[in-house]
Write a structure and sequence with these properties.
The structure is a homodimer of 354-residue chains. Chain A has 354 residues and is an alpha+beta fold. Helix content of chain A is 28%, strand content 28%. In chain A, the strands form three sheets. In chain A, strands 9, 10, 11, 12, 13, 14, 15, 16 and 17 form a nine-stranded antiparallel sheet that branches.
């Protein structure tokens, strides 16, 4: 299927979190229906999507019925079981492609693939056991971070090694999960590029944003990033190279470190990305609509920014400030409809024009 | 109830058309649920709202259950049967107020009320029969327009009288409905002010937009309007006076004619308005969120505009240009999810930054 979807067609989305929710809103704006597939009951996206299937990824009947109801399938997170994807793909195209998922699901595969593409990445090593960790620490040095190869997000599944004697505890904390050791990169700032590629192979990027993390969770993204124009161009070219190498269709988040020796790729996410939420208020066509346009085979927007923006995530107890934020005349609030506020839980974000 | 609604609360909306749809999206962005009440099956808003009741306005049980499920009730159109409103109001507050509905439901009442407030309106007369029409035509002169007092929209329920001999046919075309004769106003342009008033009595207005109609239907709204700054200020002050006089809570569309003797009020609509759709891409907080904020008791946004915008309605066969519009890099498309395209039917709109 290479023809653009017509209004009235249905996009299937695997995952019903806030990203699925905001994708649903963007799809409805283009007259497209959304069917969400999500194991958990009453997820954030259920409110804004047209249809929802509540079933586990092991339910073959539910997966088949879901696929048949959709014209194309996309996803809002990368850790989807391979068997479910195999089954879905028998019925409908999955965009972005399986290869992007395979690579980004595994930190070790991802680092290797990016390095093979000729891009700079942090020093890394495959960790199978205590012996390989010792060898890796000798080569990479401490401090370093031991991470599970799969299923990590927002700083989870990670242990910092400050000195070789921390190695055993760090390894034990991962409970035997396959792991990767990553060396620290000495960077001045972290930026990210939200890039999109259409079915026609055209690439469009939003301006790089500058990210600030705290406790492993993104706190703010500011555009424009305080980097020279030449570096912004480099970042966009690198992102474009990654998408084109994958024959990618959709939006990807590419996180980069700014270092003295140029840009180092931190990680890629084959989906809309928290650091791209500023586009909702800084651009005519935001990252969510851009992703929907790509997977629906529509022409992409050009990514042009009309305003400078600071995006602030509202996490856990940040919700105590809600009344105050709601009273800021120029603050665009985006809440995710989550009933329960928990420490570390992303409840919403606010975009402020600068 | 004067406390602001908390996220998780429910706003009831009477009417499930495109205005209800876009109000739903705005409410979900603030973490508020929406329950739509609409007699027709599968209306545009059903896709983006959390809950929907499909029942006629004469179904007292359905109305009562709907009201009890909501924290506050608002509406997307003005022709709601009085009896239904009486019943709903026994259970929950209706915002904007009943008085605004009573006045705007009837062209004659509206013109009289605006004139009593000291605002300029077109010459008008109550038409009960052929004799009163003759008398009115003598005073007001031809050309003039005979309109039904109630239930008119988008140019429907109107007959133009070019000369006294057209009077009988014009009157017959209204099938005996109570009518008003309105004289023509010689105007250079039509503008509208989208004004909002909060529970706290504060008023915020968006910049006046300049409207172009064709065949009685709005085609484009452009901001800023090409009028002197002093006139823009007058328009905003007039709108503010109307809202304050009504102790209004919510967004109102105020249509004004620009004439040699100043601004003449054409009509008021006690709801979000087609001529305010540009705010979706020209402002941080658009008319839909502004209305939701008002009826939810939240502080209003300030109405500040960050970009110049032209809004174009997509009506009937305009949908043939969809592929072309989708390919304009800076065109923000908003479709209403209507399955069937019909001549004269509003299918969507597009906002272009200028």
């Amino acid at each position: 299927m290479t023809k653009p979807l017509s209004p009235g067609a249905t996009i299937g989305i695997l995952g019903g979190g806030q990203l699925g929710r905001m994708l649903s809103v963007a799809a409805s704006r283009l007259g497209l229906h959304v069917h969400i597939y999500e194991p958990a009951a009453n997820p954030p996206a259920s409110e804004t999507a047209d249809r929802i299937t509540t079933a586990p990824y092991e339910d073959h009947d539910a997966l088949t019925a879901f696929a048949k109801d959709c014209d194309v399938i996309t996803y809002e997170f990368e850790n989807i079981p391979t068997e479910a994807l195999d089954l879905l793909e028998q019925h409908r195209p999955i965009r972005p492609c399986r290869e992007a998922l395979r690579i980004s699901q595994d930190r070790l595969t991802e680092k290797g693939w990016l390095a093979d593409l000729g891009l700079q990445v942090a020093p890394f090593a495959d960790i199978k056991d205590a012996a390989s960790l010792d060898t890796a620490l000798e080569r990479i040095g401490a401090p370093a971070i031991l991470k599970t190869r799969r299923f990590g997000y927002d700083g989870k599944g990670q242990a910092r090694i400050n000195a070789p004697e921390d190695a055993a505890d760090a390894l034990a904390s991962l409970n035997g999960a396959p792991a990767i050791l990553e060396g620290f990169v000495s960077f001045t700032r972290e930026i990210s590029v939200i890039a999109a590629r259409g079915l026609d192979g055209r690439v469009a990027c939003f301006d790089p944003g500058e990210n600030v993390h705290r406790e492993g969770i993104l706190r703010t993204t500011t555009v424009p990033a305080t980097i020279p124009h030449s570096l912004a161009t480099d970042a966009v070219l690198m992102a474009s190279r990654i998408l084109t190498a994958l024959d990618y269709v959709g939006v990807m988040g590419v996180e980069l470190f700014v270092t003295d020796t140029g840009l180092v790729v931190n990680e890629i996410a084959p989906r809309v990305h928290n650091s791209g939420h500023w586009t909702q208020n800084g651009c005519q066509i935001d990252q969510f609509e851009q992703h929907i346009r790509a997977v629906a085979g529509w022409p992409l927007g050009d990514g042009k920014r009309h305003s400078d923006v600071e995006m602030e995530n509202l996490i856990g107890e940040d919700m105590d400030r809600l009344a105050q934020i709601a009273a800021e005349p120029g603050a665009a609030l985006h809440l995710y409809g989550k009933a329960e506020t928990r420490p570390g839980r992303k409840m919403g974000h606010v975009n402020r024009l600068r």
